[in-house]
Amino acid sequence: MSMKDMEPELNEAIGRILDRERALLAETITSRQYEAQPELAAKYGEAGRVKCLQDANYHLSYLAEAVAASSHSLFSDYIGWAKVMLGARGVPAADLSRNLLIMSEVVRERLPPEMGLVVQEYFEVGLNRLPALPSDLPPLFEDAAAAHADLAGKFLRFLLNGERHLASRLILDAVDSGVEVRDIYLHVFQPSQREIGRLWQLNRVSVAQEHFCTAATQLIMAQLYPRIFRTEKNGRRIVATSVGGELHEIGVRIITDFFEMEGWDTYYLGANSPTNAILQALSDRRADVLAVSATMTFHIRAVENLIAAVRASEDLKAVKVLVGGYPFNVEPELWKRVGADAYAADAAEAVAMAGSLSNSSGEL
User: Fold this and answer.
1) Which residues contact 27 (CB under 8 A, 6 or more apart)?
2) What secondary structure letter does DSSP report for 132?
3) What are the residues facing 34 on neighbouring strands?
4) Contacts of 222 (CB under 8 A, 6+ apart)
5) Which of 16, 69, 73, 208 is deepest in the core (most CB within 10 A)?
6) Per-residue pLDDT tens over the stretch 122-141
7) Residue 362 carries which DSSP code?
């Protein structure tokens, strides 16, 4: 067996070690950085040290998943995300770079030489790209010509001001005036959620505001259900879920509702459903497709494990698996690596792709 053939197995082993040793590694990295930069204690205080430890844990989590997936892009993209997020909170890119260099040293010390060489490549690629990565992110609502841009902008402003009732009235009035519910989902709900995530990354909204906006959007979506669930069914069945540990479930809920509007019989499980419960739902519902969402890179292996469990069940051999979420947008081939049948970037693409998958199964 060549080294290239051994790469996935070796990389998966590295990912497992990084996960197992993450707490110790993070503490070592943080201590070493504060020893190398004693001015950090005075600059950030004890709360800063705690945050540095948390950040080290996050960095290692993303590193473990990127290596296990054999994807330099996933780790480099995370470094770019961290640069913007930390910069917005007063942590310069130089501190991030120093932290990553120390992390590289500590990880190499803890790993066998052949594994250390593999991980070193991920740090080198990420650090080489870091200076050119943006320090800011442009607004997502800049294009005034985009479909329903004015409606989306007003909706977002109401949410950010805590005016849920006005946001609700805006959407219901728009639908009553003839705007398709599909367009509300595609051109208002989806971009608004992405913009809220961008604003949090830039430290312009709090976690509380982000949670309020998400909860308010879900409530407004529920108000549209009388219109959504009267769609005539087409005989296709889908179960949709987020992997255990995911907190960002609104994306898969939007996709599930979009399937319902297209005539699918949907069964939405949300987040944190145990694997056995998901398998049972697939069997009970006689599902044609399982849609799985992961918004965080460090949940990739949870997606892979769920898909492996589906494949191992004799009763579910015909079920097709469709994946989506941010990591799959970053790494185009990732859906193949986790064992899925296809990937979709948004709700409209998910419906089209799932239709193709269910037709190819020969059951419909």
Assistant:
1) 53
2) G
3) none
4) none
5) 69
6) 999 999 999 999 998 888 76
7) T
Residue 299's closest CA among 126, 49, 65, 84? 65
CA 114/CA 92 separation, integer angstroms: 33
95-99, Cβ contacts within 8 angstroms, sequence gap of 24 or more: 95/37, 95/40, 96/130, 97/127, 97/130, 98/33, 98/36, 98/37, 99/29, 99/33, 99/52, 99/55, 99/56, 99/59
Mind listing the pLDDT tens digit for each residue in 163-189?
999 999 999 999 999 999 999 998 999
* In the chain, alpha helices (H): 3-20, 22-36, 39-68, 72-87, 93-110, 113-129, 149-160, 164-176, 181-184, 190-201, 207-223, 225-228, 250-261, 275-285, 300-312, 326-330, 334-337, 347-360
pLDDT tens for each residue of 205-264: 999 999 999 999 999 999 999 988 877 888 899 999 988 665 567 888 889 999 999 999
**Token output for 58:** 């996050």
State whether residue 343 is helix, strand or coil.
Answer: strand
What is the 8-class DSSP label of residue 333? T
What single letter denotes the amino acid at residue 94?
Answer: A
The total number of residues shown for the chain amounts to 364
- 152 Cβ partners below 8 Å, 6+ apart? 141, 146, 187, 188, 191, 192
CA pair distance 49, 176, nearest whole angstrom: 53
- With contact defined as beta carbons under 8 Å apart, do 60 and 110 qualify? no
Q: Please state the pTM of the whole predicted model.
A: 0.86
- What are the structure tokens assigned to 89, written together? 């909170």
Contact 114, 150 (CB under 8 A): no
Query: What is the rounded end-to-end Cα distance, in angstroms, of the chain?
Result: 42
What does the alpha-carbon distance between residue 202 and residue 190 come to, in Å, rounded to a whole number? 19
Helix (H, G, I), strand (E, B) or coil at 229: coil
Residue closest to 182 by CA, chosen among 258, 280, 98: 258
Closest CA to 266 of 258, 256, 275: 256
Strand partners, 266: 238
Residue closest to 259 by CA, chosen among 353, 179, 347: 347
